[in-house]
Write a structure and sequence with these properties.
The complex is a heterodimer.
Chain A (H helix, E strand, L loop, with lengths): L17 H6 L15 E7 L5 E7 L1 H4 L4 E6 L21 E2 L5 E7 L2 H10 L1 E6 L27 E3 L2 H7 L2 E9 L11 E7 L2 E6 L4 H12 L6 E4 L15 H13 L3 E4 L2 H7 L6 E9 L5 E13 L12 H4 L4 E11 L12 H19 L3 H7 L17 H12 L12 E2 L2 E13 L6 E6 L5 E4 L9 H12 L7 E4 L16 H22 L6 E6 L1 H5 L7 E13 L5 E11 L6 H20 L5 E2 L4 E2 L18 E5 L23 H13 L10 H4 L2
Parallel strand pairs in A: 1-12, 10-11, 14-15, 19-20, 23-26
Antiparallel strand pairs in A: 1-5, 2-4, 2-6, 3-5, 7-15, 8-13, 9-10, 9-12, 13-14, 16-17, 17-22, 18-19, 18-21, 22-23, 24-25
Chain B lengths: L8 E8 L2 E8 L4 H8 L18 E4 L2 E4 L12 E3 L12 H8 L9 H16 L18 H7 L10 H12 L1
Parallel strand pairs in B: 1-5
Antiparallel strand pairs in B: 1-2, 3-4, 3-5
Helix pairs in contact in B: 2-5
The chains are: A alpha+beta, B alpha+beta.
Bound molecules: FE2/S2 (inorganic) cluster (2 copies).
Chain lengths: ~700, ~170
């Protein structure tokens, strides 16, 4: 293990691109115009949920001056095979969900393209659709694995017998609705074909992966495709895999021979960029009188589309959270005529821990044990299913630290008894966890003639502060000041890197950057410090050789709410999160990420809900007027801390990912606080007024 | 649209960040699209195009508006300040400095709108405009946390930077 003298890492740093972002000069995907003749493509969506496109009458569109082309199945070029059938754009007449792309119109101006799209006449052969998720859906099946590669079900001991025998049991069903990522920057692409190659400016969470996908679809060698994404306006998973828009841009550019811009509208995003599947979860816990768990059973029922299987790993956190000799976790899916669900911040942990941590609160009440004490009592020595040691685990420290900071000791557990004016007040706690993944990546480091250093890696900074964190990491590895290091990310022409996903970015890219910097120092040594020098690293072997351990971040979430006694309006007055995440690279930006995750968790608790329109088969409330995300006035002062955690079995930095754990557990802490305030247990998110009143 | 199917255009003048522009616009064009697609002023962002997110907030004659909801043709003769016009040469506006200091953004996509909105809020409070949470309607409102949160609620931030945005604006308001 390399020990780098820590100077920049662990210190507050402003984002390296901060000045660009506050002056409006940071250019996002749609804001690139490769040439003056750049034109506009507008996507056209299906208005049926299942059936076929019989014909598209393009005459009304094409006669408009300024319209260049209309593309659909009838005239689109054939594409190569796509791993994700959502990307086989216009390759079939089939319509698998309402909102699926059926055509694209390209025109000289955005206004004309929109008008032309409106004039397309799409003729369908409609079939009855099936869009409602139920536990007893006849198509419910067991997938062969859940994302990304976990077993679908696990079982240890005899959970049914243990539940039967347990002194205290709870058997509870929770539901979470469809939730939509909604990054503020809609997915956008500008595509242009140059010298038989394809260049796209694209809003994504990983340019290397988009490059490989486009190369496959258009039958090009990967190095004939370049994907540029210097600034990305958030993704939260929805930009983790290429979406149909990038294919539309590349197709439209091919058909017209022009540079083409495409963006999803906010409304279109609700069908086209993935969302968190609605999930129904049953949690059964069996415990001794003192709360010691004897059995844990967690079953999840989810939807996927008929286009592609997407199996959310909802119950996976239950596999590592608490000790119990008898345990089972399962996942079942129903393929419906709905848009394909996809990655959304902390897939698995976020919805799974809402159910588990609500159930733990209910068990605490059933046993008459303090909910923090209950969790401490069931703390496992080693990973309860795999038996592997934890690389580090500080859940108990987070709970204790949080309890002290939040003022938990004085809490009266009785529900519904604290009234302040028109409000009933309560507090709640929940645990959080998220895996510490690391993926292979490459990087180069170069000592420039002027004494500075350039580090290159096709990482993505989607607002995480990756560019800044990597600058700090590189500076320490090079034993220089961060000001002398320039980190280039967001371009597939840079060394291939893993996605900004699974909170794995800093661990994966940081390892590659450290190794490249170490190699560069050796080169400089060898050549007596002569510049320029360059060195490269590929971490595939290192990542694959890592010892088998259970690597996870943990945390504790605390919430205080006030509930209006007449209207049922819930206001969160305090949120506190305490996390154990290894070494924190940049405390300033880390704090922002935790707060951001907790803010999204507050939205999950109280407002976010994609409502399925059963009649028409799509998400009805597909804009910000109807799908509510937290606004400034919804969010109280949020407090964040982390415990000292030294873990040298993760990566050279000793860091765990922090982008997702902030959303995990927040909704349960809020729901538990609502119960403490009112005595009403809401098991179906979001905690709407009508679920509290009446 | 008339029978010829030609876009209707109009020539207008706009003062944008102190620079006069005479431009011919499609009468269907929003101010936001004219700024972004014609003047290459890409600071103002498009988050929804429907007046629901505030990413496109700019100042028109000193007042904050959603540029996606304004037809450019209706703004002939107006003076517009976008985020590109907030800094004074190389010197950042105090609100821009405070946003960096407090890390009041992550992805930065909502940020230009937040900044223009914040400048609007500071001016509105200084001019004595109350908000729904203002207790004393006769006094000049003091921009405490509640006032800032209320007045900034037209600018959504999915990265969840609100806590830091409120701190940044609070510091400048002092
Ligand atoms: S883009 Fe104008 S309010 Fe959203
Ligand atoms: S900083 Fe990303 S949306 Fe506000």
């Amino acid at each position: 293990m390399t020990v780098t003298p820590t100077r920049a890492v662990g210190t507050d740093f402003d984002r390296v691109e901060a000045a660009e972002k506050v002056t409006g000069t940071a250019r996002y995907a749609y804001e690139h115009a490769p040439d003056r003749d750049t034109v506009y493509a507008v996507p056209v969506q299906s208005v049926i949920a299942r059936g076929e496109v019989v014909n598209v009458d393009t005459d009304g569109a094409l006669t408009l001056p300024g319209v260049i082309a209309a593309v659909w199945h009838g005239n689109a070029p054939r594409l190569g095979p796509a791993d994700d059938p959502e990307l086989a754009l216009f390759q079939s007449r089939r319509v698998a969900y309402r909102g699926q792309l059926v055509a694209g119109v390209i025109a000289e101006t955005l206004e004309t393209a929109r008008e032309a799209a409106r004039r397309l006449r799409v003729e369908y052969a409609q079939e009855p659709h099936d869009v409602v998720l139920r536990v007893d859906h006849p198509k419910m099946y067991k997938p062969s694995k859940v994302n990304p590669a976990y077993p679908t079900d696990t079982e240890y001991g005899d959970p049914d017998a243990a539940l039967e025998k347990a002194a205290v049991t709870v058997d509870l069903t929770y539901s979470t609705p469809a939730e939509h990522n909604n990054p503020m920057e809609p997915h956008a692409t500008v595509a242009v074909w140059e010298n038989d190659g394809l260049v796209v400016y694209d809003s994504n969470q990983g340019s290397s992966a988009v490059r490989d996908t486009l190369a496959g679809l258009f039958g090009l060698p990967p190095d004939a495709v370049r994907v540029i994404a210097p600034h990305v306006g958030g993704g939260f998973g929805s930009k983790g895999t290429p979406r149909p828009g990038v294919v539309l841009a590349a197709l439209a550019a091919k058909v017209t021979g022009r540079a083409v811009k495409v963006t999803m509208t906010r409304q279109q995003m609700f069908a086209l960029v993935g969302y968190r599947t609605p999930i129904i979860q049953r949690v059964r816990l069996g415990a001794d009188e003192d709360g010691t768990l004897r059995a844990i059973v967690h079953d999840a029922f989810e939807q996927t589309s008929t286009v592609q299987e997407f199996a959310e790993q909802t119950t996976t956190p239950t596999r590592i959270m608490y000790a119990a000799p008898n345990r089972r976790t399962t996942h079942r899916l129903a393929p419906l005529d709905v848009p394909t669900p996809s990655w959304m911040r902390a897939p698995g942990e976020c919805p799974g821990m809402f159910a588990l941590e609500s159930a733990m609160d209910e068990l605490a009440i059933a046993c008459g044990v303090d909910p923090i004490e209950l969790r401490i009592r069931n703390e496992p020595e080693t990973d309860p299913e795999s038996g592997l040691p934890f690389s580090s685990r500080n859940l108990v420290a987070c709970l204790r630290e949080g309890a002290a900071r939040f003022g938990w000791a004085d809490r009266d557990p009785a529900p519904g008894v604290r009234r302040e004016g028109r409000r009933l007040v309560g507090t709640g706690v929940a645990a959080a966890t998220y895996p510490a993944y690391r993926l292979p990546s490459r990087a180069t480091a170069r000592a420039e003639p002027d004494g500075g250093f350039t580090v290159r890696i096709a990482a993505a900074d989607i607002g995480t502060g990756a560019r800044t964190a990597l600058t700090q990491i590189a500076a320490d590895a090079l034993r220089t000041a961060p000001e002398r290091v320039r980190v280039e990310v967001g371009d597939s022409a840079l060394p291939t890197a893993s996605l900004a996903g699974g909170s794995s970015g800093t661990a994966s890219w940081g390892t590659a950057v450290v190794r490249a910097c170490e190699a560069l120092l050796r080169e400089l040594d060898r050549y007596g410090g002569r510049r320029p020098q360059e060195a490269a690293a590929d971490t595939t072997a290192e990542v694959e050789a890592a010892e088998r351990l259970s690597r996870h971040a943990f945390g504790a979430q605390f919430a205080e709410v006030g509930v209006d006694v007449d209207t049922g309006e819930v206001r969160v007055s305090r949120l506190l999160g305490v996390f154990g995440v290894g070494r924190v690279i940049n405390p300033k930006t880390a704090r922002s990420q935790f707060i951001g995750g907790m803010t999204m968790g507050l939205g999950m608790a109280l407002m976010e809900e994609g409502v399925m329109d059963v009649e028409f088969g799509d998400y009805l409330n597909h804009d910000f007027a109807q799908y509510h995300i937290p606004a400034c006035a919804d969010v109280p002062d949020i407090e964040v801390h982390w415990v000292d955690e030294v873990d040298d079995r993760l990566n050279p930095m000793g860091s765990k990912g922090i982008g997702e754990i902030g959303i995990v557990g927040t909704a349960a802490a809020v729901a538990n606080a609502v119960h403490h305030a009112t005595g009403v247990r809401v098991r179906d998110l979001p905690i709407r007024l009508d679920r509290l009143v009446g | 649209m008339d029978g010829t199917n030609l876009p209707e255009t109009a020539t207008i003048t706009l003062d944008v960040n102190g620079v006069d522009h005479e431009i011919t616009v499609d009468t269907r064009s929003s101010l936001l699209d004219v700024l972004r697609e014609h003047l290459d002023l890409i600071g103002a962002k498009k988050g929804c195009d429907h007046g629901q997110c505030g990413a496109c907030t700019v100042l028109v004659d000193g007042r904050r508006i959603n540029a996606c909801l304004q037809l450019a043709v209706a703004l002939h003769g107006s003076s517009i300040t976008t985020v590109e016009g907030l800094a004074d040469g190389d010197g950042l506006h105090p609100i821009q400095r405070a946003f960096i200091e407090h890390d009041a953004f992550q992805c930065g996509y909502c940020t230009p709108g937040q900044l223009c909105s914040a400048v609007g809020v500071l001016a509105e409070a200084a001019a004595g405009w109350p908000s729904v949470v203002t207790q004393d309607l006769s006094a000049t409102p003091a921009l405490d946390g509640d006032e800032i949160r209320e007045r900034m609620s037209g600018n959504l931030c999915r990265c969840g930077a609100y806590v830091n945005i409120v701190a940044a604006i609070g510091e400048v308001a002092e």
